[in-house]
Write a structure and sequence with these properties.
Strand order of the largest sheet of chain B: 2-1-3-4-5
Shape of chain A: rod-shaped
Structural class of chain A: alpha+beta
CATH class of the domain at 1-8 and 20-56 and 68-107 in chain B: Alpha Beta
CATH superfamily of the domain at 1-8 and 20-56 and 68-107 in chain B: Response regulator
Radius of gyration of chain B: 13 Å
Largest sheet of chain A: 5 strands, mixed
Helix content of chain B: 25-40%
Strand content of chain A: 5-15%
Helix content of chain A: 55-70%
Order of helices and strands of chain B: EHEHEHEHEH
Order of helices and strands of chain A: HHHHHHHHHHHHHEEEEHHHHEHEEHEE
Strand content of chain B: 15-25%
CATH architecture of the largest domain in chain A: Up-down Bundle
Oligomer: heterodimer
CATH topology of the domain at 1-8 and 20-56 and 68-107 in chain B: Rossmann fold
CATH topology of the largest domain in chain A: Rhopdopsin 7-helix transmembrane proteins
Chain lengths: 584, 124
């Protein structure tokens, strides 16, 4: 292939010299050496850009298309020859150069034309560029010069019906149809594609805007020649040179855009270096930078769960490929490692995507393990919360059972004993009366103890009236003065229960160990966190680690994503602070 | 063992436990009250209060269809005095006892004619 491309380059160079000479020899005052050279330069720009693209991306048809357009543009100049056969052949085929150029633009950057309208336009374009010149050649009698040609008439070897008027009319129809209708459709399709593209794709499709401008300039230029034989020199010069500049820039821009993926491989090299020092959670950002797609997402495959999670271990549902987003899956030894959800325009840059994926494979594997670990941690965390909820529910059930069962029976028994006392009245043996009175008193103590037990398991007031009421009840029963400052309003049950038990345990410690004269309890919400504080003026010296009560509560607080801090300097009182996330 | 001062009081006993209602009826009657009816839920309590016009409603807080607090609020326009009862302690019920419109609260195991009369005296 390399030899073929070298041969094409040599042929292009030779054909360029010939095209230049044919123009100089035949166009006379209609051209100049500079103009003739500029036209050859346009063709060489297509040819050179095409050959470079062909060499770099052999699988992409854009390179051959641009090369063909370059050759066609050179060959088009041979139609000025006054050799009847050369004129006929290249007049017939020369216009295909613009069809090839338009085809290249519509096939950018993948080499494939996408969209039914685009395909139709390309086919109609080729057909028109071939059939109109052929039709003209069939009726051109050589009695007059043709428009858009040099000043001397030519001789068509294909003429079958000599009608100069028809030939000129066909020329006008050709220009009107190709540069009036097809060119406008072409510009509209190109602009539509730009408008519908994602921001990332739009950056890549910028050369299409240049194409639209260049073809518009050409259309205006061709249109002027329908109206006048020779436009004013200034208009001719301006339009001609802008057109030349545009047509030289167009193939270069197309190939540069197409090869951006290849140039971006430098980014891939940087990506490898960056990934060495990127923590797993930074993988997404590094890939997003390397691929120029800020919205990129990375999903890590968890074989046990058979689902993808993001870098923080959260479930990631891969989106359906809706035209804006696309998914590339990365495998290793047949097993999925990760999936990259990216801008659909990256599909046109498979090399960049694959190279980045390959560079990131090892780091992705590490990140996958990291994400797996985080997902397991998240599961453990969720499981801890479920355990706390289940324990609370079990405590509530026990409290209800005690209340509805044993407590009711003891209450009924107390009333029956009291009824017995009434019925026996003064006739009873004093010893029996005393025993009955003692039994009633004992029963009341038993009921009170059972009530205290039920309250310790899970106070009903907490379930029914919330934390504020429960803390009010708790502090009102304390044997030392306790000031209470609590904000009203209900919170999730496990948050209220955890805060209550923190206060309950801390107050119990105050009473048992602190030798305090007073204490304060406060509960307030701050930025989605419930802060429960218990403070006393006792002897201090308490440690969360020492007492299983506070240690167990610290676990419970941490299970809900919070923390428990105990400050208890010797002689300086004790300050217990629990922070429990409570944002719903 | 009757005290004449109790004789005038007619009572409706409201509790979802039949055994408790029976025990309470027996005790209150022994203490000189006249138990004119029993109700096992809030709706029946409201209906019987209107129908029987008791002077006193002994009202359990934990009823199956609605709380005793709600029933007490519904009865606030009735001439009957409402005394809330529960097997829970007063401290476990918060300020809703105060806000219910009842004249007071008695823990069930401490229920007696004397306890009720003490509340009625305080309310008078």
């Amino acid at each position: 292939m390399r030899a073929l491309r070298l041969a094409l380059a040599a042929a292009g160079a030779g054909l360029g010299v010939l095209a230049y000479q044919v123009q100089i020899d035949n166009l006379g005052s209609l051209t100049s050496p500079t103009r003739a050279l500029a036209i050859v330069a346009v063709a060489w720009a297509f040819l050179g850009a095409g050959l470079i693209a062909w060499a770099r991306r052999p699988e992409n048809r854009l390179g051959p298309l641009l090369t063909a357009a370059g050759f066609a543009l050179l060959a088009r100049q041979l139609r000025y020859s006054h050799d009847p056969i050369v004129f006929t052949v290249f007049f017939a085929l020369g216009e295909l150069s613009y069809a090839l150029a338009a085809h290249s633009v519509l096939a950018y950057p993948s080499g494939h034309v996408r969209g039914r309208a685009e395909w139709l336009l390309v086919r109609v374009g080729y057909a028109s560029m071939l059939l109109f010149p052929l039709a003209i050649l069939l009726v051109y009698d050589g009695s007059e010069r043709l428009r858009y040609m040099d000043l001397r008439p030519h001789e068509s070897v294909l003429v079958v019906w000599e009608d100069m008027g028809l030939a000129l009319a066909l020329q006008k129809a050709f220009v009107f149809f190709v540069w009036g209708v097809l060119a406008i459709l072409f510009i509209a399709l190109v602009l539509r594609r730009l408008a519908r593209a994602t921001p990332r794709a739009r950056r890549m499709l910028a050369p299409l805007l240049l194409a639209a401008v260049v073809f518009a300039l050409r259309a205006v230029y061709e249109g002027i020649f329908i109206v006048v034989d020779r436009p004013a020199a200034i208009v001719d010069d301006v339009l001609f040179w802008w057109q030349i500049a545009g047509f030289i820039a167009l193939p270069i821009a197309l190939v540069a855009g197409m090869l951006r993926a290849r140039l971006a491989r430098a980014n891939v090299g940087e990506l490898v270096l960056e990934l060495e020092r990127t923590p797993p959670e930074g993988m997404r950002d590094a890939l997003a930078r390397a691929l120029g797609d800020p919205g990129l997402e990375v999903g890590f495959w968890l074989p046990e769960r058979r689902e993808y999670v993001d870098g923080r271990g959260r479930l990631l549902v891969l989106p359906s490929e809706d035209g804006e987003r696309a998914v590339t899956r990365l495998d290793h030894a047949g097993e999925p490692i990760a999936a990259i959800v990216h801008d659909a325009s990256l599909v046109d840059e498979p090399e960049l995507l694959q190279a980045s994926g390959a560079a990131a494979r090892l780091a992705l594997e590490n990140a996958r393990l990291h994400a797996d670990m985080l997902a397991q941690l998240a599961e453990v965390q969720e499981s801890r919360v479920r355990i706390v909820q289940a324990a609370d529910e079990e405590r509530r059930r026990i409290e209800r059972d005690l209340h509805d069962g044993a407590q009711q029976r003891l209450v009924a028994l107390a009333l029956q004993l009291r009824s017995g006392q009434r019925q026996l009245g003064e006739v009873a043996d004093p010893e029996v009366s005393r025993l009955l009175a003692e039994a009633v008193d004992e029963l009341q103590v038993a009921v009170e103890e059972l009530r205290e037990l039920a309250r310790g398991v899970h106070p009903a007031i907490l379930t029914e009236d919330g934390l504020a009421a429960a803390l009010e009840s708790l502090t009102s029963r304390a044997p030392i003065p306790v000031a209470l400052d609590v904000s009203e309003g209900r919170l999730p049950a496990q948050v209220e229960a955890t805060a209550y038990f923190v206060a309950c345990e801390a107050l119990a410690n105050v009473v048992k160990h602190a030798n305090a004269s007073r204490a304060t309890v406060s509960a307030r919400r701050e930025d989605g966190v419930l802060v429960i504080e218990v403070e006393d003026d006792g002897v201090g010296g308490a440690h969360a680690e020492n007492g299983s009560g506070l240690r167990g509560l610290a676990d419970r607080v941490e299970a809900l994503g919070g923390r428990l801090v105990v400050e208890s300097p010797t002689g300086g009182g004790t300050h217990v602070v629990g922070e429990i996330p409570c944002a719903s | 063992m009757c005290d004449d001062s109790y004789m005038a009081w007619t009572v409706l006993v409201v509790d979802d436990h039949p055994a408790f209602r029976a025990s309470a009826r027996r005790l209150l009657e022994l203490d000189g009250f006249e138990v004119v009816g029993e109700a096992g839920d809030g709706a029946t309590a409201i209906r019987l209060t209107r129908a029987l016009r008791p002077q006193l409603v002994l009202l359990d807080i934990g009823l199956p269809d609605r709380s005793g607090f709600e029933v007490a609020e519904r009865l606030s326009g009735a001439p009957a005095h409402v005394v809330l009862i529960s097997s829970r302690a007063r401290a476990d019920l918060g300020k809703r006892v105060r806000e219910s419109g009842a004249i007071g609260f008695i823990s069930k195991e401490q229920l007696s004619g004397e306890a009720i009369l003490a509340l009625l005296d305080r309310a008078a």
